[in-house]
Design brief:
The structure is a single chain. The chain is an alpha/beta fold and 291 residues long. 43% of the residues lie in helices and 16% in strands. It is built from eleven helices and eight strands. It has helices spanning 3-13, 19-32, 61-65, 73-91, 97-116, 122-131, 140-149, 162-171, 219-222, 259-269, 281-290, and strands at 15-16, 37-41, 154-161, 179-188, 195-199, 227-232, 248-255, 272-275. It has an eight-stranded mixed sheet with strand order 1-8-7-6-2-3-4-5, sandwiched between helices. Helix 7 packs parallel to helix 11 (281-290). It starts with a helix and ends with a helix.
Length: 291
């Protein structure tokens, strides 16, 4: 498959913002090869589906940790109350990101406080993940394997919980050597092994631009790679590239819900938009074309 065939295939199956701009980005990625490419990828609702095959809401990394059989029912009730209050705000197309931000901080801080009060140990996390099935996005395994084969750095940049994300990926054989995770980290008491804090900074869906990737080990693996493919389900995910020097960034958005209301907004922000919780195949097509 060449550039024209790739672009035609994407255009026929997905939404594209500006044809010529997107085509130029694709052309540079193809011409510069694997050695100049790296990925910035959100986790919840990007690497995973929003809905399961049974049309239920797929659990987020926070949701997974809140579902363990060992956790108290009162805790689960309070977590669900937070979800019912704040999730509609996160998804509300009539609110701006600036209006949502303080409420997302409030949600994250309350959720983390509730989790700390449950006295969760490191060993509990693996057990909880095993009890709570999560469906990764169709085609993700193919993308992850291709990136590992060609030593393409793959950053998972998430407002979720590092410890849970690692365990989910490990359980599905998707935690690979070329991967690095930046997310909210649980802190464990060295004497008791119990989570008694979350390490700063707090990362939520609208403040990813404030986190400087230059301070992470991941940055040194990408310092000479000037082409980025960014994957996210939220407009706020576009901020992931703010802390990375690059020549071009191909932004691929996953508009899982509220498609009619939000499609124009997403097309103004992303180069390519995958709608209705679709598969991640477009990324595989790009990698295959580089080959």
């Amino acid at each position: 498959m060449n550039l024209e065939e790739l672009f035609s295939k994407i255009s026929a199956t997905h939404h594209i913002k500006t044809g010529e701009t997107t085509k130029r980005k694709l052309e540079k990625i193809l011409n510069d090869g694997f050695q100049n490419l790296h990925f910035l990828c959100d986790f919840d609702r990007t690497m995973t589906h929003l809905h399961t095959q049974n049309n239920e809401i797929n659990p987020s990394s926070h949701g997974i940790l809140s579902s363990g059989s060992s956790l108290k029912e009162d805790f689960k009730t309070k977590v669900n109350q937070l979800y019912q209050k704040y999730f509609p705000i996160e998804m509300d197309p009539n609110l701006t990101d600036d209006e949502k931000t303080p409420l997302m901080v409030e949600w994250w801080e309350k959720a983390h406080r509730l989790l700390i009060d449950q006295h969760i140990s490191r060993n509990d996390i693996a057990q909880i993940v095993s009890e709570t099935p999560v469906e990764v996005r169709s085609g993700l395994d193919k993308v992850i394997t291709k990136c590992e084969e060609h030593n393409i750095p793959f950053l998972v940049f998430s407002a979720g919980i590092t410890n849970v994300i690692e365990e989910v990926l490990r359980s599905k054989n998707l935690l690979r050597s070329n991967m690095h995770i930046v997310s909210n980290q649980m802190g464990f008491n060295p004497l008791t092994g119990i989570c008694d804090h979350f390490k700063p900074p707090l990362i939520h869906i609208f403040n990813k631009s404030e986190f400087m990737l230059e301070k992470t080990p991941y940055y040194f693996t990408i310092s000479e790679r000037k082409n980025v493919i960014l994957l996210g389900d939220s407009i706020g995910d576009l901020e992931m590239s703010s802390g990375v020097k690059h020549d071009i960034c191909l932004n691929i958005g996953f508009l899982n819900d509220h498609v009619e209301e939000l499609l124009d907004k997403y097309l103004n922000a992303f180069d390519i938009v995958v709608v209705h919780d679709g598969p991640i195949d477009v990324v595989s097509w790009i990698l295959e074309t580089i080959s």
